[in-house]
Amino acid sequence: MKQCSFGLLLKHDPCMATLHGHLGCCMGVDFNNFFLGIDVQYTNHSLFLSQKKYVQEILSKTGMTGAATTPTPMVSLPKLTVTSDSQKPVDGPLYRSTIGMPQYLCITRPDLSYCVNKLSQYMNFPSESHWKAVKRGQFQLTCYSDADWASSVEDRLSTTGYVVYLGPNPIAWCSKKQAVISRSSSEAEYRSLANCVSELVWVQQLLKEIRVSVEQTPMV
Prior knowledge:
The strands form 2 sheets. This protein has a 3-stranded antiparallel β-sheet with strand order 1-2-3. Strands 4-5-6 form a 3-stranded antiparallel β-sheet, with helices on one face.
């Protein structure tokens, strides 16, 4: 069996004239189309590769369309271990197929490599904890805070601004003058951050009361 290799060649590449005589087959690629399932967008100075369509197919097959976003591909805790006899196993074929699909996604998302490698070690007998790590479907609280410094000409008060997201949805936001004058931009930023964290703590308590589970530590 002959070894087969694939490559993407630019039509205007100066090396094409030399390479053409050594290649068994050359095929021009329209940069508006897909190349081996990868969307290739060409600019004057670079190539942008993405697999958005493939990601959407993965989410559709696993029933995760519209799932909440997460800041990292994998959490550090709890530590994944081999399934014990007391743990409830999950659908093995579904787990293996779900792990197999992101392997090709690592072409454009190398940050997923560690996660895929780690989770593929438990394909023989996956448990609910392994499946949960695959889906990463928990809600995530994310906060953004900012402030200017002494922007008000009349009283030299700085302005605080922040927004709190639950998954992709903004649920709390604010933009207002600070109560006191800040002596530096750093002091203004810290005051804004303090107000943001105070709002975040209140949101956490509210979500707890209405029984919305937020297991991951909020990002600010």
